[in-house]
Design goal:
The chain is of the alpha+beta class. The chain has 2 domains: 310 residues, Aminopeptidase, CATH 3.40.630; 115 residues, no CATH class. Helices cover 32% and strands 29% of the residues. The chain has 14 helices and 23 strands. The longest helix is centred in the middle third of the chain and has 21 residues. Bound molecules: zinc ion. Zinc ion binds next to loops.
Length: 487
């Protein structure tokens, strides 16, 4: 009798200790994980694991803790033979499955199920970038900003902190996890719907090294497609636009203000993951989360299998970028040669149907290249620019002895829409002027942000700082552009 009692007690203790289900699992997939429940869960998990170290990235606009977890078998970043990977989710608060998936990844690490990939990978996990939006199930953050359009400007604490984390460790690979909504009147009228469980997007800005772009397209995309389909999740390479009878379709934006391309422009192998959202944030959350988990596991397996090659490609790309003499600052998707077939859900027959998309614009070209200068002179009196440099971790010299620079005169602005983005296209001329070195910081282009600096600081850039309200007026004085070039 007593033995049975002891046995029962032991099994209760055993199950209490091993019940490490995630909050979503404990709710039987009925309730999305709150910020507090997530914090408790990842704290318990990391406290109890030698592999995870929990830290605070920053506080959100509304003062909520945004956590990050350093995951390593050998001390994060200490083994230079390993590759560093950064994965972040839920910049958009109403895209819940990415957070749920990364909480599940924390569980798997806790249960030692990912220890083999950690043999080659040091991992930074940020399961929730936007807790303020998440708690309200809204896209934007607590300051009504779209975080995924803020990665060039860096005006929000959430994005600033993410870029400072990146700068500190310089991961070679990054992944930004989202969800897409396929439900719209225009697609309904077209009669078809995007219905893939998972879409991965690669880099599209052609200033990123070709070797990275090719590696993503030729090696990763087929690999992850196969990986997911073998596990009964459908896949597509991330596309935007349409329906194709009304609007062109293309791969994702060439802009560098999102979570994918802002790291890609620093020659990282960066991806975006877009899972299929529900009509409500909780609809199908079990399958949505499972799809995202599989996608992350396939992604990690790919990096594991290609660790040396990726590391070498990134090292070389970051070196080579310093020697590039031209940077494309006006870019456009055009039709090109790629014949694009998409498998869509036929809403009348409820079956998958493969269509040839006539107006798919797959290829990116440059409409304007500019010569990369040795550096830029940034007026000290524009304090917002100094803040911007600091937020990105861009190096600059406070004391220098430069007395001569090139200044742009803006003759006039032409309104322009390129890549579905409104912008003002200035017509410029340039002349040499004498300056007082004490009035300017010198930002050399010989640094990690090399191509990004040119795209951000050139006045003719269709995606540069001048296109943002915060900077537009500060960067022009009369008809002079206030940032100067050192050629
Ligand atoms: Zn999103």
């Amino acid at each position: 009798m007593r033995n049975i009692f002891v046995l029962v007690l032991l099994s209760i203790l055993f199950f209490a200790c091993t019940d490490h289900r995630t909050p979503l699992e404990k709710s039987d997939f009925q309730k999305l994980t709150s910020h507090q429940d997530m914090m408790n869960y990842i704290k318990e998990s990391s406290d109890d694991s030698d592999l995870m170290e929990l830290d605070t990235l920053t506080l959100s606009n509304k003062g909520r803790v945004i956590p990050f977890i350093k995951v390593s078998t050998s001390g994060f970043g200490k083994d230079s033979n390993k590759i560093k990977v950064m994965i972040f989710a839920q910049q958009h608060g109403n895209e819940q499955s990415g957070k749920e998936a990364l909480i599940n990844i924390v569980k798997r690490i806790y249960e030692s199920k990912l220890t083999y990939v950690l043999g080659k990978i040091d991992l930074l996990l940020i399961p929730q970038m936007n807790p303020d939006g998440s708690e309200l199930d809204e896209r934007r953050n607590g300051n009504d900003a779209d975080l995924n359009r803020d990665h060039l400007l860096l005006s929000q604490p959430e994005t600033i902190a993410l870029h400072q984390l990146f700068k500190k460790y310089q991961p070679q690979v990054t992944l930004d996890i989202h969800e897409y909504r396929p439900f719209s009147k225009s697609w309904e009228a077209f009669g078809f719907q995007k219905n893939w469980d998972e879409q991965f997007g690669t880099l599209t800005n052609i200033n990123v090294d070709d070797e990275i772009l090719n590696f993503q397209k030729q090696k990763f995309i087929p690999y992850i497609q196969n990986f997911l389909e073998e596990r009964d999740f459908t896949f597509n390479e991330y596309v935007v636009g349409g329906p194709p009878n009304l609007e062109r379709m293309r791969y994702s934006t060439i802009d560098i203000n999102d979570g994918r391309q802002s790291f890609g422009i620093l020659n990282s192998m960066s991806f975006i993951l877009e899972g299929l959202n529900g009509r409500t944030s909780v609809e199908n959350i079990e399958r949505r989360t499972e799809g995202q988990i599989r996608a992350v596991l396939g992604f990690l397996e790919f990096v594991y299998n290609n660790k040396n090659e990726i590391r070498d490609v990134i090292r070389k790309s970051r070196e080579d970028a310093l020697n590039l003499s031209k940077v494309a600052v006006r870019l456009e998707h055009i039709k090109g040669d790629e014949q694009k077939f998409l498998t869509l859900l036929n809403l009348k027959t409820d079956t998958d149907t493969t269509l040839l998309i006539d107006n798919f614009h797959a290829k990116v070209i440059s409409n304007l290249d500019v010569e990369k200068p040795k550096g830029y002179l940034i007026p000290k009196k524009i304090v917002e620019l100094k803040t911007w440099l600091d937020n990105h971790g861009i190096f600059y010299e406070v004391n220098h002895s430069l007395t001569e620079a090139d200044q742009y005169t803006i003759e006039n602005f032409v309104d322009s829409v390129d890549e579905e983005l409104e912008n003002q296209y200035p017509q410029v001329s340039s002349e040499k002027i004498n300056i007082n070195p004490n009035d300017f910081y010198f930002v050399p282009t010989n640094q990690l942000h090399t191509n990004m600096l040119v795209i951000a600081l050139e006045p003719q850039s269709q995606i540069g700082l001048i296109q943002y309200d915060l900077f537009k007026e500060k960067l022009t004085e009369e008809n002079k552009y206030t940032i100067l070039r050192i050629n």
